[in-house]
Amino acid sequence: MMKTLFVTFIAFLGTINAASLSTGKIVGGFRVDIADVPYQVSLQINGRHICGGSIIASRWVLTAAHCTTRTSLPYTVRIGSTVRSVGGVVVKVQSVTPHPQYNKETTDYDYSLLELAESIGYTRRIQKIALPETGEVLEDGSMCTISGWGDTRSFEESSQLLRAVNVPSVNQLKCKTAYASSNPVTERMICAGYAAGGKDSCQGDSGGPLVVNGKLVGVVSWGKGCAQPKFPGVYARVSAVREWITQVSGV
């Protein structure tokens, strides 16, 4: 399922294909301050959080295409705040550019670039994140950090406060095998998680960052439920569309 909050916001945003897959929020993680992940943003509509995203330049944010299926909606991003509903700076999104090959049925090419209406100033709590090179390889077992305001699956852990979790990247063939009976895992995707489950992104985390050694290697995209054993989270691989990112944003 896609890892957005569209399930509760679907009447406004329109129908998406989430019959068997779901997108989500940080499960099994820990609280972090925005200064620890200053590239993280909350993508919002009318002040309501729907997805995450990552600052890649002073006027550009990378998120998931399934978060922006209605390109004309009044999107904004909240930056520089640990709390998703208050604080920081709110900036209007001027234009939305989903990847032209995005496939809502398979969630392939799940990328969308947001051009902001004004440049943002960098501070300790607001920073861009580095991007990988075209075709840059992520080694199996690399420790990845995911962050967001998604569903925690715990009444004791508020989704209002930013959380993060560390999970290892998963071998591509093993991930393809795990999802063989559902969605195809393509070369535009990276998988990360523990075989035993328990730690994952979840609803509300979609579009957010998957980071390794200070680089944005993935975008939270989809998975079977949240933190389920044998089903790692699936992320849109940033290195696979590095040239497209440059063509659209100049980054």
Plain-language structure description:
The chain contains three helices and 13 strands. It is mainly β and 251 residues long. The strands form two sheets. It has a six-stranded antiparallel β-barrel. Strands 2-3-4-7-6-5 form a six-stranded antiparallel beta barrel. Strand 3 (48-57) and strand 4 (60-63) form a beta hairpin. Residues 5-25 have low confidence and may be disordered.
Topology (elements, then pairings):
Blueprint (H helix, E strand, L loop, with lengths): L5 H8 L16 E2 L8 E6 L2 E10 L2 E4 L11 E5 L9 E10 L13 E5 L26 E6 L14 E8 L1 H7 L10 E4 L16 E4 L2 E8 L10 E5 L4 H8 L2
Task: Describe the structure using short key phrases.
251 residues, six-stranded antiparallel β-barrel, six-stranded antiparallel beta barrel, single chain, mainly beta
The average pLDDT value, as a whole number, equals 88
* Beta strands, count: 13
Shape: globular
Count of separate DSSP helical elements: 3
Q: Given the helix and strand composition, which structural class is it?
A: mainly beta
Sheet having the most strands: 6 strands, antiparallel, barrel
Q: Strands of the biggest beta sheet: in what spatial order?
A: 8-9-10-13-12-11
Helical amount: under 10%
End-to-end Cα distance, whole Å, is 30 Å
Compact overview of the structure:
By secondary structure, the protein is mainly beta. 9% of the residues lie in helices and 31% in strands.
